[in-house]
Amino acid sequence: MERALVEELLSLGLSRAEAAVYVAVLTLGSPTVSQASTAAGITRTNGYEIVERLMHRGLLSAATEPARDGAKRGRPGAVVRANGPEVLRARWEMEGRIIDDLIPRLSAIAHSQSLTPRVRLLEGAAGIRTALFETLAWVGPLRGIFSMQDLFDVPGAAQMEHYVAGRRERGLWLNVVRSRERDFEQVWPSDDDDLRRTRYAPEGMVFTMTTIIGPNSVCVISSRNENFAMVIDSAEYAATQSALWDVLWQSAQDDRGAAL
């Protein structure tokens, strides 16, 4: 257990038990609640309550995985997984809390668990914000397909401005394709200061979902109608989506309307 990290997380508003469970799940990767509780040094009964609170805050998510050796064939096991530590920044950055010294250390633990492909479903506006801000921890340049009207609906214009500011702070470039049919004029054009290159898809190609592609993960964000985000951690899937995105990028027009 990273006891020093647990102590430092107390300053961010987590209780000692909540911090211990979060670090335990981050360290173990995909534990059951019982396993996480044992690692955190609390009872299983308290563990379920704490896990529920951390899921409500967007720090943990529930998942299932195939039964392990010795378990009944075909019966999946319920586990919990830690959402990216970048969620901490999204939650407390607006309050002026500085956690830059914690993020690399937490990310180092998370990276050790990132080699196994997994799919995470994050529901509601809070889940969408969690998934979006997690991409700030990815290695750039990011490849994007944006539905601007839907992004300004959920997570909303203010959150999107914070996201742009976060990319600037981290030097994270975004190359993005958008559809004019669901866009806003003069909003987020190509801009070196904002580390962004914008192109438009061919006429009639309409996106109602947003996709952000990193080197090892893909984030998909729905419209308010379905109201969810999905993060797929898989280097092979990310490479496939990157190749498809490259084809779309080559067929797009720059944001001044000129063919490329």
UniProtKB/TrEMBL annotation:
<dbReference type="InterPro" id="IPR002831">
    <property type="entry name" value="Tscrpt_reg_TrmB_N"/>
</dbReference>
<dbReference type="InterPro" id="IPR036388">
    <property type="entry name" value="WH-like_DNA-bd_sf"/>
</dbReference>
<feature type="domain" description="Transcription regulator TrmB N-terminal">
    <location>
        <begin position="11"/>
        <end position="61"/>
    </location>
</feature>
<dbReference type="Pfam" id="PF01978">
    <property type="entry name" value="TrmB"/>
</dbReference>
<dbReference type="InterPro" id="IPR051797">
    <property type="entry name" value="TrmB-like"/>
</dbReference>
<protein>
    <submittedName>
        <fullName>Helix-turn-helix domain-containing protein</fullName>
    </submittedName>
</protein>
